[in-house]
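Propose amino acids for all 199 sites.
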């Protein structure tokens, strides 16, 4: 049993121009395949989705951004409460999306159901065996294609597409850095060799 508990209620909820502010993340991991190095980066990525309470559809962890935390702290808290994961959160948001809350029909005080959601990428470093909402949620690692097909909300699909763009760009940057470093090392080695040969 988890000794942590999930926050409940809306007493500390942040609002902006009648929009409920929400923070969440796309938890991910990169699966290493030693046998097949030709597998492209997108197929090495897996994302973690969770079921909604009392439903079987899948979503990314997200929830209300409260007035005693930063947007990053809220995203990390939601990942731990809903999915039982901790990790390294990218500080730049993937984006901000406006959407209608599924609970707007039963919560008239929720600014007519309008929400503004900030989404981040979270590189998972730890999976907890138990977490605050483990009795109400199932978690599932999926490849990106599966996640796009199973994602319940269009705005979350857009966030996932932006996540892919950012990760691909980040992957290219890392490859370019490694290639430049390799070229630089070869040039230094060649210069060093020349000096050694000349002396």
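Proposal:
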């Amino acid at each position: 049993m988890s000794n942590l508990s999930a926050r409940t209620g809306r007493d500390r909820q942040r609002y902006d121009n009648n929009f409920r502010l929400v923070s969440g993340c796309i938890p991910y991991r990169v699966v290493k395949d030693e046998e097949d190095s030709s597998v492209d980066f997108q197929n090495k990525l897996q994302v973690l989705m969770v079921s909604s309470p009392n439903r079987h559809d899948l979503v990314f962890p997200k929830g209300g951004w409260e007035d005693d935390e930063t947007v990053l702290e809220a995203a990390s808290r939601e990942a731990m409460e809903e999915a039982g994961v901790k990790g390294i959160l990218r500080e730049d948001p993937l984006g901000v999306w406006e959407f209608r809350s599924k609970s707007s029909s039963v919560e008239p005080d929720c600014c007519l159901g309008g929400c503004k959601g900030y989404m981040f990428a979270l590189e998972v470093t730890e999976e907890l065996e138990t977490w605050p909402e483990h009795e109400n949620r199932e978690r599932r690692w999926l490849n990106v294609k599966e996640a796009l097909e199973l994602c319940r909300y269009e705005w979350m699909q857009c966030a996932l597409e932006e996540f892919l763009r950012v990760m691909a760009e980040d992957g290219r940057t890392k490859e370019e850095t490694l290639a430049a470093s390799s070229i630089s090392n070869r040039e230094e080695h060649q210069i060093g060799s020349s000096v050694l040969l000349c002396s």
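Confidence is low (pLDDT under 50) at residues 104-111, 186-199. The two ends are 70 Å apart (CA to CA).
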